[in-house]
Design goal:
The protein has about 850 residues and is α+β, with helices and mostly antiparallel strands. The chain contains 26 helices and 33 strands. The structure holds (3S)-3-amino-4-(1H-indol-3-yl)butanoic acid and zinc ion (ZN). Its cofactor is Zn(2+).
């Protein structure tokens, strides 16, 4: 496959001003007539060929200005259409293609999901529908006419506003015409046809414009779409209030489908969602699902401005829309829920998904410079680290400066296909500042390590902080420059309050923000009356790995007293992680008892909200510890140490946990609000430790929690504990859950993922058996992500089993899935990204499995090949 390079970017020689599409929908032979109005750019030399993208296309006919083209005037292959010598004046090209939605197992382009026609065009799916400039900088005005059988497809939806509907004379078919006045790239094109029902709401924008909101679902699911509608309305209001952005069409439609490769898609005026991110009720969705729906609905809606009105020049700029939009959805959820809790949740996600990516063979810059398959770059680095970079801009400029930059960005680039450089320039110009050093974050990959040490001079009343940053080499970038790192900090005095300093020297320090620019910097704070404990990187102000240079006593002090909730949580995590690593090495950690007692205080602290206390109790995952250890990892030793620690904490604090568990009352009518969810989560966290303790009665209590559950959070949470700790009642619980939820796919996905994560001597055999279960299907990504993704992501001991069975299995299913859906296969095969951190025994097996994929007797997709090659590099 071809290597695509940022430096090769060139404008298209022709401009497509308008596109008129007619879809004659038939499951196995859909005809697409595309009429393009084109003109050459002023600089385009006469005779320059018009080259349009295709993918597995069959051309039926081609006309230029109404006349069929002679055979020698064009070349058509499934992946390309070349028109030789197009006119030098504006012209019309009519292209008719035939496609087969029923056979489209890749779920890119036009496909059928459970009898519903739907599309997915980002990143390069439109070229599977018709020949086109399938690239984000080709903006055009689209009109779409959809024709289909009326009885089986009563609903016909397109982008933009509805224009016309009617019957097609003498047939059982009908049509609808949609027009989108906003020029857009092809990746935002969408079409839906099927037998759907919807819930609707009227919305009035801040300036008084009415908008019809509709959420379409399969019949019978309408009662499960209410939370999504609620989330949508709140998102629309929030964007008006926070960023001054209003919606810009008469209708906003969302459709939920069951077969979808990713979470959702922000098509203009017609968002298409994986049903997992739309459907919810207390019986089938957990609190985490409700939160996920709120986030994803908001995220896709926010793309209307950051992504659609201002899009990307090419796919290297993906973080321009994704990083910024993730930042916006994070801010929305922080405003709707608890800001510190949301920050912790986002950092947990970043550290568990992006940090491993950045420390392994798949590491790449937030704004990459080359790729083979763009689908492989929808990564945690582009999305989550991309959001961190936007957050740092806000930290550096302050809220007002940030808003000024955003306002300028919206004003200056509305209607553009832009770049990261354009984005940064808006912040620089709006704030009269220079962000060139900061911009390195977009181009230099890897997670910086920040090492701190400090000393106090009582006589001089000075506190000296030494900070050193190093960034390990990453693929293609052996040498690293120092980053511009904003460090929020406090100097915590003996009474737990921050000490004010009179002067700071050695770095740019402004209030509680210290900006590092060099590899090594020494900062001296004057006027410090007593020895402080430095609290660094408050609110996780930069995506770095901090070695704070504090002893256990000081960490416990911060855990108890820091005014920054994030760093209270972080102190607990650091302690747990350090102790778990020592236990993995067979050592007994110093200060364990003091830590466990501080943990009890945090868990019982009524001044903290329930969700925060739940997070405070969270043990780092086995994967987190493996990453922290970094080399020669033995996952069995990590798992055993972690189990032992949980058991010990559970046994020592059993009474505390029981007290907290019993005291929390959750209202009888289910509500997904943050406060109620926080209560459920703290209760379940207490139950986790009680279940781990092995103390008599704990298994029965866990089973009773499961039996009494009247919502999915409690039912799934308790079942997970029964299975994780292999308690009496686990088997019955699994059966009862299955009986209750069979037939509800999204609920059965949870059952699959619990079973997949269970520690088990022969995990691969268990997974194989589950692939035969009626609830599982290789064709629906949600099923695959739940079972196989659950195994790879949560069953660390099973996947990294020393005999290599987990690696062999991943190789086998990668090859299996790659035949039908390369995107799904490539997402899963990324789990090999950590193989170099394993011990020698495991590394040999993993390498052999990767080589087996590469040398298999089958044509590999570009998606899978690129990932496997990078892993082996
Ligand atoms: N912008 C959307 C990305 C997406 C996608 C990409 C490749 C293949 C399938 C896909 N489905 C959705 C989702 C988002 O980030 O908002
Ligand atoms: Zn997005």
């Amino acid at each position: 496959a071809q290597l695509i390079k940022l430096t090769d970017y060139e404008e298209t020689p022709y401009v497509i001003e308008t596109v008129s599409l007619v879809f004659k929908l038939h499951a196995e032979a859909t005809e697409v007539v595309s009429t393009l109005s084109l003109h050459p750019r002023a600089r385009t030399p006469a005779g320059t060929a018009l080259e349009l993208d295709g993918d597995e296309l069959k051309l039926l006919s081609i006309k230029l200005n109404g006349t069929p083209l002679e055979d020698d005037a064009y070349d058509a292959a499934p992946d390309k259409l070349v028109v030789h010598n197009p006119p030098t004046e504006p012209f019309k090209l009519e292209i008719t293609t035939q496609i087969n939605p029923a056979a489209n197992t890749r779920l890119m382009g036009l496909y059928l999901s459970d009898g519903i026609y739907c599309t997915q065009c980002e990143a390069e799916g439109f070229r599977r529908i018709t020949y086109y400039y399938d690239r984000p900088d080709a903006l055009s005005v689209f009109t779409t006419r959809i024709e289909a059988d009326k009885a089986s497809n009563p609903i016909l939806l397109g982008n933009g506003n509805p224009q016309e509907t009617g019957r097609i004379d003498g047939t059982d078919r009908h049509f609808a015409v949609w027009h989108d006045p906003h020029p857009k790239p092809a990746y935002l094109f969408a079409l839906v046809a099927g037998d759907l029902t919807c819930i609707s709401e009227k919305y009035t924008t801040a300036s008084g414009k009415p908008v019809d909101l509709n959420i379409y679902v399969e019949k019978g699911n309408e009662q499960r779409a209410g939370w999504s509608m609620d989330s949508l309305v709140r998102s629309m209001r929030w964007d008006e209030k926070t960023f001054g952005r209003e919606y810009d069409l008469d209708v906003f439609n969302i459709v939920a489908v069951s077969a979808f490769n990713m979470g959702a898609m922000e098509n203009k005026g017609l968002n298409i969602f994986n049903d997992k991110y739309i459907l919810a009720n207390s019986e089938t969705a957990t609190d985490l699902d409700y939160e996920g729906i709120e986030t994803v609905v908001a995220h896709e809606y926010f793309h209307n401005w950051t992504g659609n009105r201002i899009t990307c020049r090419e796919w290297f700029q993906l973080c321009l829309k994704e990083g910024l939009t993730v930042f916006r959805d994070q801010e929305f959820s922080s405003d709707e829920r608890s800001r510190p809790v949301k920050r912790i949740a986002d950092v947990v996600r970043l550290k568990s998904r992006q940090f491993p990516e950045d420390q392994g063979p798949l590491s790449h810059p937030v704004r990459p410079t080359e790729y083979k398959e763009i689908n492989n770059f929808y990564t945690a680095t582009v999305y989550d680290k991309g959001a961190e970079l936007v957050r740092m801009i806000k930290t550096i400029l302050g809220a007002d400066g940030f808003r000024k930059g955003m306002d300028l960005y919206f004003e200056r680039h509305d209607g553009d296909a832009s770049t990261i450089e354009d984005f940064i320039k808006c912040f620089e110009e709006a704030n009269d500042t220079d962000l060139s050093h900061f911009s390195l974050w977009y181009h230099q990959s890897g997670t910086p390590h920040l090492k701190a040490s400090s000393s106090y001079d009582e006589a001089a009343k000075t506190f000296t902080l030494e900070l050193e940053q190093t960034t390990p080499a990453t693929p293609g970038q052996p040498e690293k420059e120092p980053f511009f790192i904003p460090v929020r900090f406090g100097l915590v005095g003996p009474n737990g309050e921050d000490i004010a300093y009179s002067k700071a020297e050695g770095a740019r320090v402004d209030g509680d923000l210290l900006c590092l620019t060099e590899r090594k910097q020494t900062v001296v704070f004057h006027g410090i009356g007593s020895k402080p404990v430095p609290s660094l990187l408050r609110e996780f102000s930069a995506p770095v790995k901090l070695e704070a240079g504090l002893n256990r006593h000081e960490q416990i002090f911060l855990m108890r007293h820091d005014i920054d909730p994030f760093n209270r949580w972080q102190a607990a995590q650091t302690l747990m992680s350090e102790m778990l690593i020592e236990m993995t090495n067979g050592d007994i950690p110093a200060g364990k008892d003091a830590f466990i007692s501080a943990l009890a205080n945090m868990a019982e602290d009524e001044n903290l909200d329930h969700a925060f206390r739940g997070f405070g109790l969270m043990l780092p995952s086995e994967k987190d510890i493996a990453l922290e250890i970094g080399k020669d990892v033995d996952t069995d030793a990590i798992g055993a140490a972690r189990d032992a620690f949980a058991k010990e904490i559970g046994a020592s604090l059993y009474d505390t946990f029981e007290r907290i568990y019993s005291a929390i009352e959750v209202s009888e009518t289910f509500s997904p609000d943050a406060a109620s969810a926080g209560k459920r989560s703290l209760k379940l966290r207490c139950l986790y430790y009680m279940a781990a303790s092995g103390i008599e009665g704990s298994a029965a209590l866990t089973k009773a929690h499961f039996d009494a559950a009247d919502n999915m959070t409690d039912r799934m949470g308790a079942l997970n504990l029964l299975v994780t700790w292999n308690l009496e009642g686990a088997k019955d619980g699994l059966q009862a859950f299955e009986k209750r939820h069979q037939g509800t796919a999204l609920a059965m996905d949870k059952w699959l993922s619990i079973a997949a994560g269970a520690p088990n001597e022969d995990a691969v055999s268990t997974i194989r058996t589950l692939t035969e279960h009626p609830a599982f299907s290789w064709d629906i990504p949600n099923r695959v992500y739940s079972l196989i993704g659950g195994f790879l992501g949560s069953n660390t001991r099973g996947f990294h089993k020393a005999d290599g069975s987990g690696y062999d299995y991943l190789a086998e299913i990668t090859l299996h899935l790659d035949k039908n859906n390369p995107q799904v296969a490539s997402r899963l095969v990324k789990s090999f990204g950590s193989w170099k951190n394993m011990n020698a025994e495991r590394r040999v097996k993993a390498k052999a499995a990767l080589e087996r994929i590469l040398n298999a007797d089958q044509q590999l997709s570009t998606d899978v090949k690129e990932i496997v090659e990078r892993c082996l590099d």
